[in-house]
Amino acid sequence: MQKQAIIVRTDLEMGKGKTCSQVAHASLQSYMKTKEKNPEWVEQWTREGQKKIVLKVSSKKELEELFKKVRTRLPCSKITDAGHTQIEPGTVTAVGIGPAPEGKIDQYTSKYKLL
Amino acid sequence: MQKQAIIVRTDLEMGKGKTCSQVAHASLQSYMKTKEKNPEWVEQWTREGQKKIVLKVSSKKELEELFKKVRTRLPCSKITDAGHTQIEPGTVTAVGIGPAPEGKIDQYTSKYKLL
User: Of chain B residues 33-72, which have a CB less than 8 A from chain A?
Assistant: First the structure.
């Protein structure tokens, strides 16, 4: 089974709508990256109903460390917000991973809690 | 300027993560629909930084009425959740519109508040 994981920071005190838009950015960017690098994962994920899970981290450091580990292993994307509203320009807010096989994603994300 | 609007129900009492995943579903589905029907809007939107706004409605009726109005005019997508967690299978949760020119979207969505 394929899934996409989106990991978002909770320490920025973004409102619900802002958080949702960062998650959507990460989901779309990571989808496009995966479509380019592993199109067969995207096809399978689409057939299976496009499972997505949203997880949380509580610091920039945690998110950057996760991204550093994952970036050479799985298609993924880090979102930096333009900062028009609520937060400073250039703030790293979220990371999207995959879609990719569940087991491969869980290796990196199993310690994070659902948002 | 192009933007994508995502409209989500607040009456379902979904948790934050669930809400974010519904918004991400709507964003991705509507992106794919637009890419098929109006690829030039997607290209322009990508060049401009992929503006997304997340709005709220408080009932199924409101969301269905919006979708009925928009569906023949703009590329859009209605999300029905499989209901594995938190809500009943087949529940309509969100609608994504575009990316499309801001003015065309605002015609239908200007009365809704940001999530």
Answer: 49-50, 52-56
